[in-house]
Amino acid sequence: MTTLAVEKHHWGSRRFLGIPAYRRLLATRLASQWGDGLFQAGLAGAVLFNPERQADPAAIAAGFAVLLLPYSLIGPFTGALLDRWDRKRVIVVANLLRAAFVLLTALAVGAGLSGLPLYVSALVVMGIGRFVGSGLSASLPHVVDEDHLVEANALATTAGAVMAVIGAASAIGFRTLLGAGDGGSAWTTSIAVVGLLLSAFIASRFKAGVLGPDEVDEPNHAITAVARGLVDGARATWRTPSVTAGLAALLAHRAAFGISLMITLLLMRYSLEDVGILKAGIGGLGEVAVAGGAGVLLAGVLTDRIVDRFGTKRTICGALLLTAAAQVGLGLPMTLPTILLASFVIIFAGQIVKLCVDTAVQQDVGDEVRGRVFALYDTLFNIAQVTAVSITAMVVPLNGRSHALILVAASLYLVGLGAYLFLSARERQVQHPGLVREDDGSHPIG
């Protein structure tokens, strides 16, 4: 059995793209995440780097709450409904609805609105987007054999993340052409509607029911199903040690990443200056996004092979140690070159952890509750980042230069490592017949 795992044949992207259903699901994801990347970057430019507006740490934290809290507020509803409704229909309708609210958000930006009117519209866009993201993740096992889920998930997640970076870069380009003020920002933000409409069209080509759920383990009344979504997701997560431990590691990463992100934004906005071809300001954030995208791409290529060689447990532990080292070695200097290198390494290692956790959910959790587990996952994931960003906003100086906060972020990775090892010990005590991979890290090297 171990030998078979070691010698598992890697399909590669060409083989996966030869599966029509996988290709269509991937195209749906790419169009959606291009729109997401453009919308978020356009909105960030309008709020944080708009010469007509002034941003302080509190305003930045509020912006992140707008972008991320919907994941937490909408998450329970997303999971219950994805395990109850045809996922194809959910993805199509969600994309159409958020396209409409993208246009409303763009109108609010163009009118110079700020605060609650702008944030409510953006909250709806991001909140409805959870139905698309969770639906795509929960649908993947319906189009790819279980034996190749790690590789298929790595390809889909990596390509989607890279497309989001391309969307963000597109927003910076459109902003240069259309202007950095409210008017130009409004036009830039509105272009995201193209990706969302295209995603809805591609998803509409699936036949009804082909993306699941195969069985509905839900109460007859939708309100009851929604109300118990988080509880069901939490129970399923706790019954699956590989998911529980991986989620703890991922939450630590997300909290530490939130601290680093707030510091990076402030450094780019108020502290750093151009160094040769490297730019500060919103251009610098674009370079950070590109560096992060390269890290995501490399993680997508290597994760499946690293897991096959070292096992999931050693892979996650190594990734957490790498991020802690990068926080200290590359984060403390606070220069443009080291910030770019830190972005690459931290996002590369963090993506490895995420891919391992995504695959654990897809392999080890039953389809009838998988949507609710992904919804809980998204909820906790983003609560961790919003909380970290908000706390950081209360203590960070306006110029972003805080070595103490960098060390706190590094220590969080070590806390995550300890939590992961502690929770992984439950693996030996819990019988879970769905396991197909040696998550105890005992895979022989070589």
UniProtKB/TrEMBL annotation:
Keywords per UniProt: Cell membrane, Membrane, Transmembrane, Transmembrane helix
Keyword Cell membrane in record: yes
Main location: membrane
A Pfam match: MFS_1
Its membrane topology: Multi-pass membrane protein
Regions that span the bilayer: 58-78, 90-113, 119-140, 152-174, 186-203, 245-268, 280-303, 315-333, 339-361, 373-398, 404-423
Annotated localization: Cell membrane
Residues annotated as domain Major facilitator superfamily (MFS) profile: 1-428
Protein name: MFS transporter
Organism for this UniProt entry: Lentzea pudingi
